[in-house]
Amino acid sequence: MKKPKPLISVVVPVRNDPFGLKSTLTSITNQSYPKSRYEVIVVDNNSLPGVDDICRSYQVCCLHQPVPGSYAARNLGISRSLGKYIALLDAGCIPDSDWLEAGIRYITRPKIDAVGGRINFSFKTSHPNIYEYLDSVRKLDQEGYVRQGFSVTANMFIDRNVFAHFGMFDSSLFSGGDYEFGRRITIGGARLIYGPAAAVTHPARYSLNQILKKTIRVSLGQKQLARMGKLGHGRLDLFSFLPLLQIPKGRYYSRLSRPERFQIWLLLNLIRYLNVFYRLTP
What we know:
The protein is an alpha/beta fold. It contains 10 helices and 8 strands. The protein has an 8-stranded mixed beta sheet, with helices on both faces. Helix 9 (208-228) runs parallel beside helix 10. The N and C termini lie far apart (63 Å).
């Protein structure tokens, strides 16, 4: 008799993103992986009303975490899950139809404890605006993150035994809980690999407000990690105060006009000095 495929628990935290949640659940419920071999757990983290109705319409489990923070929400979902493997995904991310199939191929390899899957970006139109461009070339480089010993939770597979051995996410962190968790387990001996075939698509931030909110949140998270002695990358030094001279060259760089490139350069340095400011202020 053929051995059944492993049971996977997909945990999705959400806060006030009903449209993103619907897109994510539509893709999750249409996976090529056998439906009887995975469960979906949505964790509502103090959203406005409506998450329960969405979950009912997709026939998925909905939990409520009143403690603020996505890491507290993930911890609740993981603690209530049944799968041997946990697949973490953000609301708004769209997994490829074979996302679970590919992820399980990586995580079930010998001596593999966690997998960071590839994250692609989507834009509102065929040509990204300056904010979308900057977001897509600066963030969510999973392959680079894995080389540094962590994976973002927008696309991550984890063997349940990892939590039993190393503990859960640090829910006290404002931001950077995925960094802290990944570094904790890899320094402790767990093996994390990059899984490019297990891919999801993440919408790029498309406005100045979204970029600034992300910058401030990351900056405060880095400050908190530094105070805890857990920030191994991106420490402030003399070079942090020097302006950046060039913008990153991504896939759409050649389509950018000179005014757009100049605006992106200004925005890049604004982000740089906002990061320094928020990390140095009491």
